[in-house]
Amino acid sequence: MSSAESIAPNGSQGPARAILVGVDFGRGKPFDASLDELALLAESAGDIAVARVVARRKAPDAALFVGSGKADEIKALVLGHQAEAVLFDQALSPAQQRNLEKHLGVAVADRTMLILEIFGARAQSHEGKLQVELARLQYLSTRLVRRWSHLERQSGGIGMRGGPGEAQIELDRRMIGERIKGVKKQLERVKKQRSTQRRSRERNQTFRASLVGYTNAGKSTLFNALVNAKTYAADQLFATLDTTTRQLYLEGSTRSASLSDTVGFIRDLPHKLIEAFEATLQEANDADLLLHVVDCASPALAEQMAEVQRVLTEIGAARIPQVLVFNKLDQLEETQRPRELRDVLEVNAGLRVPRVFISAHTGEGLPALRAILTEAVAGTLDGFLNCSERTPNAVGGSDVDDEVNTDVDDDKYPMSSAHHHSLA
Questions:
Q1: Are strands 257-261 and 207-213 parallel, antiparallel or unpaired?
Q2: Model pTM?
Q3: Could you give the CA distance from residue 402 to residue 134 in angstroms, rounded to a whole number?
Q4: Nearest Cα to Cα of residue 263 among 283, 243, 247
């Protein structure tokens, strides 16, 4: 069972033309039927979606992932739209990728490869470039023998690879393994430098807050608003890769504070990529407080929050106190807006969670957020969020699931049902 949505060719030269493919395997796994996030990833990588295909299967086909019939359907779309690439929303095995490229006659990339493309283009600092290279090499190592050009881009778009000037050097596992060791050694030096900087802040008794959240939730815009910085911020996925730390001025606070902006998270973020960005994500792990920035206008709010909590658990930051910062308040309809900008939620049998509604773009709610930060620095903040805290069950005395319920009181916060969510 499937559906396909097509976009008419524009006939102009520019971004690589791509077919988007997503497969719903059911079994409670998260699935974006609209493929909107994959389209944003493609756009961020320099491609443009010309058609979308959604299929349903019980399990992936071992050879072609989507099966021969669906592969033929995709091939017809490739020919009809003169597409140069096919992008899958799930991870493909090396064999599936090779078979699909042979069957479809164009470049094929999965979600992991697409994210690596974007990270490679966005990394600016020496540390960021090293981390992306490590993740790329680890991805290549699962592909046995591939070309450097398979993850290199001389011009925008997945389908634009293979042109003149691209390296054609064959890399085997041994060569990749040696390079991985070298990059890891360089990253260890970077990690030691960051550790020295953190110890310096600890000696100064600096209160450390870090921004975390789903990509494109507005973290960098909020960072700039709070510390008057000029960090790059844009309405796109993974606009910021490199961690930036600045002094945070809080009126009335006698203790120095710092704020760090970290890389955004996304659904199905490859484990190897999280591992490669250990040095960057360490800022979040060493923070005194995490400001979990949420796009409160997103229809996928609950899923995005759950993914952030999952990654925080994976990097060992699950026990750090959090404040929920519901950003993009300016994008809500009047009937969806809360009556108060600040509230405290009760989750997990009495665990209290501070939450504040803001618009980093307009500045609305920022005074309330600054007040929360001042209280946190002073140690007087009412409530905290600990996403892995287990609270004794009042009846049976057993642990309850690690669940954060973000439902709001209808009488106090008249938001539409689309914005009433819980994390499961």
A1: parallel
A2: 0.73
A3: 32
A4: 243
